[in-house]
Amino acid sequence: MSDKRAIVIVLDSAGIGALPDAAEFGDVGAHTFGNIYKERGKLDIPNMRELGIAAIEDARLEPFTGEIQGCYGRSAEMTKAKDTTCGHWEMTGIIMDEPFKTYPNGFPPHIMDAFEAAVGRGTLGNKVASGTAIIQELGDEHVATGKPIVYTSADSVFQIAAHEEIIPLEELYSMCEKARGLLMGKDLVGRVIARPFVTGEKEYVRTENRKDYAIPPIEDTILDGLVAKGYETVAVGKIEDIFFKRGITTVNHTKNNPDGIEATIEYIKAGTGDFIFTNLVDTDMLYGHRNDVEGYALALEAFDAKLPEITAAMKDGDILIITADHGCDPVHPGTDHTREYIPILVWGKNVKKGVSLGTRETFADIGSTVFEYITGEPWRTGKSFLNEII
Q1: Cα gap 184→107, rounded to integer Å
Q2: DSSP for 301-323, written as a single string
Q3: DSSP label at 147?
Q4: pLDDT confidence of 1, banded at 50, 70, 90?
Q5: Looking at the domain that runs over 5-96+218-389, which CATH code has it been given?
Q6: Residue ranges of the domains in the chain?
Q7: Which of 36, 62, 231, 371 could form a disulfide with 274 if both were Cys (CB 3.0 to 4.6 A apart)?
Q8: pTM here?
Q9: How far is CA 61 from CA 56, 195, 304, in A?
């Protein structure tokens, strides 16, 4: 174990303004942080403000007038995508020449025919949809017929929704494994996702038994690089799924933000790992995709309220980076991810105060910085900003 440790917390989908090529993705005007603040009239995040989030270029947040305690900036995404896998992979050093395939008009017959043959059932849906909406729309028919609900989004995903009492979890997971095997090569999809649900009091409700089926990273990431050198890496939340469990020595697959935050704090306190990598999914899964401005704002505020506990637990050699993986502006039309810059906030007891990191060309700058900080060596992609913050 090194005396230097990095903690990266990804506020899933918390983008900070449309990228210059947003028009290609239908995302002109998207600004997750700024539009939430504008729509709601307030965003009570004093600790992130103190770290410099309002000072990021075009942050569109209430200006901060005190002394900024962290380093701050934003990053563009070099990969032509706006999905979870590409975002996290680029952050850890993989810039994809060809992004994963997306299916804005649903999956073509050759995919659906092969899937139905593999699972021995017909299907419902096969369209772009909100996961919470499509189970209300097609849930009754699914229960009556036993046909799984297949849907996608602007993300590169093949999602299978099924009632846990109609298609047991193990069978649903088996269906996902079969779909994963089909969606390779020219039909390569980033993730196949099991989306189980049950009958609630008034409507169908999703359970926390979601399971993601990704593919291994196409090149080594900084996680692989760190483990190869004998360092310990800790994955909190869905990180293990995104990286196919590769380059990870300790896993805590938390399923919501409160549990993810608590797990991260406990690892920091315990001195566990050399790199702690946390994804906090609620902002995206529960609020961004559902256009829930208030829920999104409250989730950001809840994280912010825990920041003092996170920083208090940090040791002298720890650095904290708070960022995102793409946008999912709940004010923007539609329910899908948005093509945005991501924020970068950095804090540590030995980190400079009030330093602007500007606009980075690639998310890979984050991983490059982490790798150099822990190992003292450069990573092959990205431009480390370590010299700017230490």
Answers
A1: 14
A2: HHHHHHHHHHHHH--TTEEEEEE
A3: P
A4: low
A5: 3.40.720.10
A6: 5-96+218-389, 109-213
A7: 231
A8: 0.89
A9: 9, 35, 15
